[in-house]
Amino acid sequence: MPDHIVFPVVGKVQYIDDFGAPRGGSPHQGNDLMAAKKSPAVAAEAGKVKYWTTSSSAGCMLYLYGESGTTYLYIHLNNDVTMKNDNRGKCVRGTAYTVKNGAKVAAGQQIGYVGDSGDANGGASHLHFEVHPGGGKAVSPYPYLQKAYKLLFTAKAGSPFALTLTGTVVSAAIDRIVVNISTSQAWPSGLTLTKLNRTIALTVPESTTVQSLSPTGGLRTVANVTLAAKGDKIVVWTTPAPTTLKAERGDDDVLSSALIQLG
What integer pLDDT is reported at residue 116 of this predicted model? Predict the structure, then answer.
């Protein structure tokens, strides 16, 4: 199993460690990730997907066979055509899934939509998420979810995006800065994520404006980002760019700065 998986839902999520809790006479085999209907469900790691559509309790379900040998179960995916509980959709691509049955997917790639199908029908929409290391017995996903990387945003491939990233400086060079990110805000979706605690490396083009915030709150333009010291507070506004999966994940040196504010 990878050291860090990608968090399987993008957006506002609430969850607890409910693994093993009583569920209809048997212990709960996963964690319920409470999220808005049709929130993106994404691949926890690279692997291959398989639809499972014949379980009345699971509803629209998907197996993700990870490259590490871990199997992940995505249960109660969406079966509604509208945002209401209409149950008029089927367990098919476009309603429950976003990829073909048997597709190979990358870590963080969207594979489905959160819903309330199966015995969750009419209840609060959520993703029942299971982790089976080596394809064996289920273990609590909670420790893995707590350490998981969250996508900074999700959008249609090629559509424009920009991010505002807040955190502290890890290291700075004239053309590259490494930042420990605590908060991100995406444009145009407005998705805000907090308590990220993620280290991301960004390129710093010559066109980047670098400003320093004085103790009195005034701003002054400085020569370059090398004036930043480890631990300094920093806000980075990224250059608008077309959406890619690498950008959504915040892969190193994919995001580029347009404006940097220090202090």
Answer: 96
Mean pLDDT by 10 residues, the chain (263 residues): 90 90 82 96 97 93 97 97 94 97 95 95 95 95 93 92 97 95 95 91 95 78 85 96 94 96 90
Name residue 23's beta-bridge partners.
26
Of the CATH numbers 1.20.1280, 2.60.40, 2.30.130, 2.40.50, which one belongs to the domain with range 160-262? 2.40.50
Domain range annotation of the chain: 22-147, 160-262
Q: Class of the 22-147 domain?
A: mainly beta
| Three-point CA angle 221, 223, 229, nearest 5° | 95
Residue 52's closest CA among 91, 78, 9?
91
CA distances from 51 to 93, 112, 169, 173, 243 (A): 10, 10, 43, 47, 27
